[in-house]
């Protein structure tokens, strides 16, 4: 299915909207690692054509202006991580491989400017955004910190129906994420190149 505002790299937005939620209007999304808010966005189509609201998280100051210009949803300029208000080094490589040095040590090998970023836990940001307790879609692409973000999230307070998480073929992180999400009631829905997708078992029951 072709849609003009579909921006995701691997068809994630089309898959979630039409295969999982059957064209649902007015859902809620969270996209961590939002880049510029448009290119490769897994949620741009949801907002622009389907009336979804949501939260974008992106700590790279390079993209703040673009996000404000192109998106209408809530935006938080923090680094999602395992604790609140920690200051960490972030290397801006100028493309989608930028990330926290603490969870991605190879990034320092790039000739890239370093900036300092403030961390927030996912649960804290959802509290501040006054997000609903059930969130249809979570997308995480943070080049190495995905497990730490999920490990310290309160799934009892905020439940996600469908999660798309990048693993980038880092086997240890991929397995830890899988074990964690399975313990929270998720089932691996599909492997999509650099991403693994998980669906909560409650959606499987409702769609049966």
UniProtKB/TrEMBL annotation:
GO terms for cellular component: endoplasmic reticulum membrane; Golgi apparatus; late endosome membrane; plasma membrane. PANTHER family: PROTEIN STAR (PTHR34009). It holds the Pfam family Methyltransf_21. This is Methyltransferase FkbM domain-containing protein. Residues 31-187 form the Methyltransferase FkbM domain. GO terms for biological process: endoplasmic reticulum to Golgi vesicle-mediated transport; endosomal transport.
């Amino acid at each position: 299915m072709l849609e003009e505002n579909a921006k995701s790299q691997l068809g994630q937005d089309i898959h979630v909207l039409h295969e999982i939620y059957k064209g649902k209007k007015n859902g809620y999304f969270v996209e961590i690692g939002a880049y510029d808010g448009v290119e490769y966005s897994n949620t741009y189509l949801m907002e622009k054509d389907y009336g979804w609201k949501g939260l974008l998280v992106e700590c790279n100051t390079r993209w703040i202006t673009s996000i404000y210009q192109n998106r209408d949803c809530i935006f938080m300029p923090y680094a999602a991580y395992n604790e609140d208000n920690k200051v960490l080094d972030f290397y801006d490589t100028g493309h989608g491989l930028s990330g926290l040095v603490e969870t991605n040590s190879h990034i320092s090998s790039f000739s890239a400017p370093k900036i300092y970023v403030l961390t927030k836990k996912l649960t804290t940001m959802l509290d501040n955004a006054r997000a609903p307790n059930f969130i249809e879609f979570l997308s995480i692409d943070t080049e190495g910190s995905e497990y730490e973000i999920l490990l310290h999230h309160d799934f009892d307070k905020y439940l996600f129906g469908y999660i798309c998480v990048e693993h980038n073929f880092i086997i240890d992180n991929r397995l830890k994420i899988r074990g964690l999400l399975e313990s929270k009631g998720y089932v691996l829905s599909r492997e999509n190149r650099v991403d693994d997708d998980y669906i909560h078992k409650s959606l499987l029951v409702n769609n049966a």
